[in-house]
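Q: Fold this one first, please.
A: Sequence and structure below.
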Amino acid sequence: MKLYRYTNGRWYVRYTRNGKRRMLSTGETDKTQALLKVGEIQRRIENETAQGIPADAPRTFAAYANEYLEYSKAHKKISSFRRDETSLNQILPAFGDMKLSEITTRDIEQFQTQRSLKVAPATANRDMETIKHMMNKAVDWNYIKANPARQIKRLRTPPPPTRFLSCEERDRLLFECSANPMLWAIVFTALETGMRRGELMGLTWKDINFERRSILLMRTKNNEQRMIPISDKLLPVLERLNIERKGQTVFRKPDGRPYGNWRKAFETACNRAGVVDFRFHDLRHTFASYLVMAGVDIRTVQELLGHKDIKMTLRYSHLSRPHLLDAVNKGGTNLAHKGNTAVFESNKL
C-alpha cells in the first residue's frame, strides 16, 4: 500500500485487491495526516474483504444513492421513483458523506427522531421506508453485511379522518367540475368506483371490458389484481370517452396530451363548491361510505376497495346505523318470544 500525491493536492493510497490496482483518497492535503490515515484505510479494506464486500462497492451513501435511484427508476412505478427522489432530498444531508458500511442503527434512529420534530409522523415514516429499502438492496448487492434499519419501528400515526361528501356537497362539486369535462369525468369515475388517484390516472382502455362491464386493475397499491364493476351511471360516461379517445390512457386532454394539471383544477372546483378540508383521496372514502349507508355488507366493500386487511374497511362500519338498529330489534324480539318481558310488565309503576 503506497501513498501518492495527486494533482488536486490530496494524498491517495494505491493498493491491489482481487488482482486489480485501485486508488483511494485519504481526504488529506498534509502528508503527515495522510500517513495517519493509511493504517485506518488498510484495516477497513481488510474488514471489507473478510465480509465479502465487493471492491467496487460505493464508498459513500451519496454514491450509493445515485446507483439506487437508477435501480428505482428502472424497476419501480414512476410515482414510487419520485417518492424515493423526494425522500432522498431529506436523507442525503444526514448521510451523504458517511461511508455506507459505517452507518449504524443509532445513526438512523437519530435521523428518524430529528425528522419527526419537523414533519408529520406519516412523512417521517415514508422517509424511513426509503432508507430501509435502500439498505435491504445494499445487502442484496453485497455492499453491506446487514441492514442497520431493519429493527427500527415505525412512528405511531393518528388514524386519518374519514371525510366524505354529503349528497349536497357531491352535487355542488360535480356542478363546479362540469366546466372542465375531463375533470368531471375523473371525479365522477372516482365516485362510482372508489379507485385511487394513481389507478385513475394510469387507467388504460385495455383495462376496461365493455362487454363484461368491468375494470380490471393490474397496477394496484397492493400489487394485486382488482376487478371493479362498471355501474349503470358510469357506463355511458366511459363509452363517450371511448368514442373520443386520443390515446391509450383514458383520461387525457382533448389534444391527446396527458392530463397533468387536474389537481389545481380539482382544488379550484372544491373551493367554488364550498367543499372544505377535502382531498382527492376522500372521493374514495365517499364511494365506500355511500356503499355502507346503502346497506352493502362490509366484506363486499372490502373487496371493491381492494383492502388486504378488513380493519381498513371497518372504519366505515359506524355509518351503518340502520343495521345496528335492526340487529337490536331482532335481539329484542327474540327475547320477547321467550317471555322475558314479564319482568318489565310486573314492575310497571
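Q: Good. Now the second chain.
A: Here it is, same layout.
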Amino acid sequence: MARQGHSEALPLRRLVRAPNKKKLTVHPAIIGSILPILLLFIWEGLSRLDVLPTYLLPAPTVIVNTIIELGADGSLWGHIGITLYRIFLGFLLGSGAALLLGSVVGFYRKAEQFFDPIIQAFRSIPSLAWVPLFILWMGIAEASKVTLIAVGVFFPVYLNVVSGILSVDRQLIEVGKMYGLSSFQLVKRIILPASLPSFLVGLRSGLGLGWMFVVAAELMGASQGLGYLLVLGQNTYSPELIIASIVLFAVLGKLTDAVLKKVESKSLHWQDRMEQR
C-alpha cells in the first residue's frame, strides 16, 4: 500500500513542479541605454522643430559634429590626455594619503582622537575655498590643480577606510585570537578582507568627487584640458562646445567608474551580494 501511495504521489508532484523555461536575458547596458537614446531623439526632434532655441541648446547632432571636429584636428586628444593625467595623479595621491591616515585612525583610538576632529573640520570647507589659497602657494601650474583634486578624493576614501575598519565584527577578531593568529595575521586574514568592500566604495566615491574637482582645477588658469574647453566655449559664446565638454566629462567619468566597478567585482567575488541575483 505504501508503494501504491508513493506511485500515485509522483504524477501530482510533476503537475505542481514549475516548468523549466529559459529566461530571456537582456544585457544591462542595453536596458540602461534606452532612456538616454529616447531623450536624445526627443531633444533632436524639438531642435529641428525650432521648439528649443538652438543658440542656447544646440541639437545633439551639432554637438556630435563639434566633438568629431575637435578629434579630427587633433586638439581633443591633448585636452583629454591632460585631464586624465590630472585625475590619475590627484586620485593616486589623495587615495594613498587617505588609506594611510585612515588605517592609522581606524586601528588606534588615540590617533582617532588626535587626527579626526581636524580632518572633519577641513572636510566641511567648500572645495572652491581652497582655490585662491592653492594658487597663492603653488601658482597656476600643475601642482595646484593636482593638489585640489587630491583634496577632493581624500575625504570620501578616508571616511570609508575608517568606517570599514571600525565596523569589523569583533567576534571575528576574537575567533582569530583563539586560533593563535598574530596581529599581522589578524590584519591580513580578517580586518583587511572585512573592510575591503567599504574601501572600494570609498575609491569610487573619491573618483566621482575627483571628476568634480578637476573642473574647478581646470578653471584655475588652465590652457589645456576639458575644463579649459568649457571656459573657451563660454568666452566665445559657443554652447555646442560647452555641452560637448560636459558630454566628454560624463563619458570619461563613466568609463573610469566602470573600471573601478570591475575591480570591485573581481576583488569581492567571494561575497554573496544582491547584484548577483
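Q: Anything worth noting on the second one?
A: Residues 63-266 form a domain with the MetI-like fold fold (CATH 1.10.3720.10).
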